[in-house]
Amino acid sequence: MTQACSLFAVSLYQAPATTADASSSDLKDVEEKIDGLAITTTAADEEVEKKTANFSSQSGLDKYSKLFNKTPIKDVLATGAALAKAGTGSGAEETDTDEVLLTAVVTGWVKTGRVAGGGAFAFVELNDGSTPLNLQAMVTEETATSSGLGSLKEITGTGCSLALEGDLKRTPKGTKQVVELKCTRVVYNGECDGGVYPIAKKKTTFESLRSQLHLRARTNTISAVARVRNALALATHLFFQENGFFYVHTPIIGTSDAEGAGEAFQVTTLPIQADAMMKRKLLSDEEMAALEAAASAKGSLVKEAKTQLKEDPKNEELKQLVKDRVDVLVAAKAEVEQAKHRRECPDGFQRTPEGVIDYKKDFFGLKSFLCVSGQLQGEAYACAMSKIYTFGPTFRAENSHTTRHAAEFWMIEPEIAFADLRDVMNCAEDYVKYCCKYLLQHCKDDLKFFNRMIDKKALARITQVADSKFARCSYTEAIEILEVEAKRRKGKKKFVHPVFWGCDLASEHERFIAEEHFKCPTILYNYPKEIKAFYMKLNDDNKTVAAMDVLVPGVGELVGGSQREENYEVLVQKMADAGLDAEEYSQYLDLRKYGTVPHGGFGLGFERLIMFTTGVENIRETLPYPRWPGNAEG
Amino acid sequence: MTQACSLFAVSLYQAPATTADASSSDLKDVEEKIDGLAITTTAADEEVEKKTANFSSQSGLDKYSKLFNKTPIKDVLATGAALAKAGTGSGAEETDTDEVLLTAVVTGWVKTGRVAGGGAFAFVELNDGSTPLNLQAMVTEETATSSGLGSLKEITGTGCSLALEGDLKRTPKGTKQVVELKCTRVVYNGECDGGVYPIAKKKTTFESLRSQLHLRARTNTISAVARVRNALALATHLFFQENGFFYVHTPIIGTSDAEGAGEAFQVTTLPIQADAMMKRKLLSDEEMAALEAAASAKGSLVKEAKTQLKEDPKNEELKQLVKDRVDVLVAAKAEVEQAKHRRECPDGFQRTPEGVIDYKKDFFGLKSFLCVSGQLQGEAYACAMSKIYTFGPTFRAENSHTTRHAAEFWMIEPEIAFADLRDVMNCAEDYVKYCCKYLLQHCKDDLKFFNRMIDKKALARITQVADSKFARCSYTEAIEILEVEAKRRKGKKKFVHPVFWGCDLASEHERFIAEEHFKCPTILYNYPKEIKAFYMKLNDDNKTVAAMDVLVPGVGELVGGSQREENYEVLVQKMADAGLDAEEYSQYLDLRKYGTVPHGGFGLGFERLIMFTTGVENIRETLPYPRWPGNAEG
Q1: Is the pLDDT of residue A52 over 70?
Q2: Where would you tag: which of A368, A576, B107, B122 has the fewest CB atoms within 10 A of its CB?
Q3: Assign residue B199 a region: left if phi > 0, alpha if psi is -120 to 50, beta otherwise?
Q4: Between β-strands A368-370 and A266-268, what pairing exists: parallel, antiparallel or unpaired?
Q5: Do B226 and A242 count as a contact with CB atoms less than 8 A apart?
Q6: Chain B contacts of A632, Cβ < 8 Å?
Q7: Which residues of chain B does A620 touch, with a Cβ-Cβ cutoff of 8 Å?
Q8: Cβ pair A465, A515 in contact under 8 A
């Protein structure tokens, strides 16, 4: 190990990712372009890169897997590739396949394996999730036997787990892999019966993988998504922390039902209690009367005994009799109360006189729901801490089966005090760019995978967003542009939806503006007040509000945000116009009453960012455990 | 501004935090010790410090508040203190109070303010949440007037929002503040009526602040908690990312009811639908029959019209009549169906033949709950990605009103594949230490505040944990130690709970072990299998399982973890022993069936870490929007 350790500090991305197999020269071209990517970098960008570079280089032994003293495959491959290259000058005709580049223990799960040489040795492609790249390992029959294995077949099945010790060596020239591990010992193996393993080697559909959520992270695509998701989450924290934002955990459970749109899940303990109550017998009037009579009789028995005791107050037996009969009476009375309660809740629920479920009896003492946004609470924290962001799960009970909707998803919602719409737009643009740059710097192999296997435009899209200044265009200007275009268009190419000032822009309009007119990511702003939410700041024109949407190629709207109305009277009026109850929003109004400040923020659906960067088409592949109507398992 | 900008890069913590007012010399001693804190640092620690140092230094103008071109108060104070010091040699008798150290716009909310000099000027203490320290600003009546204010009183009320432009100057020697801002312009102000402002200047109780969740982040303690919470969240991500763990979002909604312990909140859309259904009239048998008869009559009318049309097939009027009558019939039939459905659900709920609510009709098609842990899904991801961690909200429907329980809280749950209990213990110890070190490096002013105002032992506790190697002691050894102590103890000091091998350790036992016996953070491990969860790995002694708890001074158990049982047969047996249904855990068992690996992990309640580091005694102060029985508002 000593030889390797000192060299493991080499960053993965400084080493050529030569183990990736490019299936066509076209693709190779694209990827080489990406390798030499000329993203315009400013001094600030370089600062970011310096700060974050550390997260991509895992160096040497895995600190928390001392059990095997293993090294992540990502590091073995990176260091191995660097060492392999260092030893061979460009002019060398022969490759030295004997030199031990490094010695390491690696662990992981077999992607593919085969026995070769008439049973003399086996090749396995091992993956441990640290990188999309597999490590090729070669195990001889001798090594297998000396390691206590019965047969090489015990380690070649897809899905087998392995810990292998070996020497990393160069492969002969012309081999797909640059290096391979010649195993000296099989340290550990866990078998996997290929006959029943649900995620077989052969190509499978995303849909069928959704019934194997616990195993699908072992597939190339889902594990690449997991790494990109991880990188984007970290990039999110780094961006906001570097800019002085505080991370705030806004509540998941709350009392807002999202304006009663039926999109909020209810959180309750009542149905469980109701089902328990239903298991108790519901007495008829006669049965109830009999129960009460029985209790009353027990009361008489107590009285009787007490009278006897009065006459003979020192009689210990009588004292005991009174005690016993009181106990019986208490139990009988409790039974009566329970039975009455059961009769009050014939269906198990306590109800108000109007017949609706009485939520005063619920866990929180009122109807409560899963959050659909953390914005309102985020504003409160911004109006104390100046700059905050949320990053947490959000919920929609929409009965939607599209590829873009999930019942549970993650949102990022920054909020900035002492800021206006321009500040919000600047922040959104910088954040999205930061995420793209971060991925290009830290997930190159995964991005190449997506570009090759999922979406041939993915890399070009990310690079463009990382690199270009976003266009900014007011809604009114956009309508003018669209009206000109609408006149120009004829026949089939006509816009389906009519264009006029005041219309809600359709996807076809947004796409024309961003993809055809400006040909770059575009921020639209200052929308008609009628088509936007009540809390958005009314502009001086009295017609538009300070709202903005960020449109990016491929997915359309990625970010929506606004400056918030900070004027108390205007907000009260806007709420009345929207038919909202000021009482329910008293805390929100308080922020405008006590030291109000201009402020604003935006929301970004995290999964949409993942879909945008990876090209994955269904949101159900971007979430580790997606939830949608009819599906909450795994 | 130009003068300031180039100097703003000075880190806050390189500058002396001289603006803090120490109320006693004792406290000052403790704090000075903390300033010169000699935490044993290794090369790795320094690496960490280097990486993370950037997050504490906000430099210069606030990028996303161009509206005011403001600078965070944290930076103004840090740079100001450094500049003030640089200009005055230690021997200087006189302080130059005229020199403009820097010019800046600051924003924030007034903590306290007063008009002085017979109305000639006002002092305000301004806070923007970027630091616990306030900036003192002085505004003359002239400045107020030229800025359009009617009176200085408009800006001195607690809670007022302000944007002030001014020159930062030294204060005369002996003044509590080192620097103050001499305002040249009041750029913005938002009034706050002290008479009705719910969080008054005078001391208030934490309990009363809980009814003002939207404003309480403006108080010293809650904003300090918010900064510590933010720092610990970032430290969590940095620690795991630096060590190659992937952040995984395990699901919030799932089908596990936590073994039916009644601790899971149900997530449902049925009660809302039921309440809507209850608003529709429930028809009697007679009414139902009448409705059906009416529909049937409408059917006859259709037939009649059709017969007529057959006789006169070109009659347009008849055609229309058929159409109209069909429409009426369809509507009538729908009404019948609705009424039938309503009669099937007399209480609004669809029920199974057994009378229990039919969850097949619920949003997810089955009974679903809020997660009580992400461990099971975390294990699945670790068995693909090798090292993962979760950091998300978790829920308990316990009817608990203690200071340590919340219905909604955040948990961190790492999971490591190819690891054993020792690896898990190493990881937990390093993580907790990392968090403490991170706070000492990045939240010194907040920690000083807590140490002064909330818990005089807080700083000593964090420093000890950051600095000392944790003791490790098996459960069996712990019992031996406790038995010796139990014999030694007499009278009132006796343990309340009996000590014997197999007993669940009580808090008094844990505290003796950690605080009195080892006198340092202690990890207890290898507990009797009977008192631990089914999934923990059975040790070779067949009596204990590979479980561990980390005990820290002050709060007791901070972390609980284990190696997981990776042997399929053993796990099946343990589940049977625990009375669990193997069918329900089939995915969990699959991980042991397909390439099983030794693995383990731990869980840490994030709020407990905050209570431990700040000394805040009630969990309700550690969450921005705490939820407990009867409380989900705000």
Answers
A1: no
A2: A576
A3: beta
A4: antiparallel
A5: no
A6: 251, 253-255, 364-366, 368
A7: none
A8: no
**Does B63 sit within 8 Å of A243, measured CB to CB?**
yes
- For the ranges A132-146, A487-501, B45-59, the maximum mean pLDDT occurs at A132-146
SS3 A225: helix
Contacts of B163 (CB under 8 A, 6+ apart): A418, B68, B70, B105, B106, B107, B186, B187, B188, B189
pLDDT at site B634: 86
d(CA A80, CA A429): 39
Strand partners, A412: A391, A604
pLDDT tens by residue, A104-141? 999 999 999 999 999 999 999 999 999 999 999 999 99
Q: Which residue of A has its CA nearest to B277?
A: A356
Residues 6+ apart with CB under 8 A from B337: none
Q: If you write DSSP's letter for every residue of B518-586 in order, what string do you get? A: I-S-EEEEEEEGGGS-TTBPBPTTSSEEEEEEEEETTTEEEEEEEEEP--HHHHHHHHHHTT--GGGGH
CB contact under 8 A, A422 and B107: no
Centre a 10 Å sphere on the Cβ of residue A356 and count the other Cβ atoms it contains: 16
SS3 A558: strand
DSSP A420-481: -HHHHHHHHHHHHHHHHHHHHHH-HHHHHHHHHHT-TTHHHHHHHHHHSPPEEEEHHHHHHH
| Residue in chain B lying closest to A361 (CA) | B630
Residue A443: its chain B contacts at CB < 8 A? none
Give the residue on B whose Cα is nearest the Cα of A68: B418
Subunit contact A253:B395, Cβ cutoff 8 A = yes
Q: What angle in degrees, to the nearest 10, is found between the helix axes of A220-242 and A43-52?
A: 120
Task: Please report residues of A whose CB lies closer than 8 A to that of B58.
Answer: 243-244
Contacts of B214 in chain A (CB under 8 A): 377, 380, 587-588, 590-591
Cβ-based neighbours of A587, under 8 Å, separated by 6 or more? A376, A380, B213, B214, B634
What gap in Å lies between CA B73 and CA A217, rounded to an integer?
Answer: 46
Give A-chain residues touching B155 at CB under 8 angstroms: none
Under 8 Å CB pairs connecting chains A and B tally to 405
* Range with the poorest average pLDDT among A124-138, A267-281, A519-533, B446-460: A267-281
Using DSSP's 3-state secondary structure scheme, residue B254 falls into: strand
Q: How many residues does chain A have?
A: 634
Residue B257: what pLDDT? 83
CA distance A116 to chain B (A): 22
Judged by phi (left if over 0) then psi (alpha if -120 to 50, else beta), residue B188 lies in beta
Residue carrying structure tokens 């990876």: A614
Predicted ipTM of the assembly: 0.90
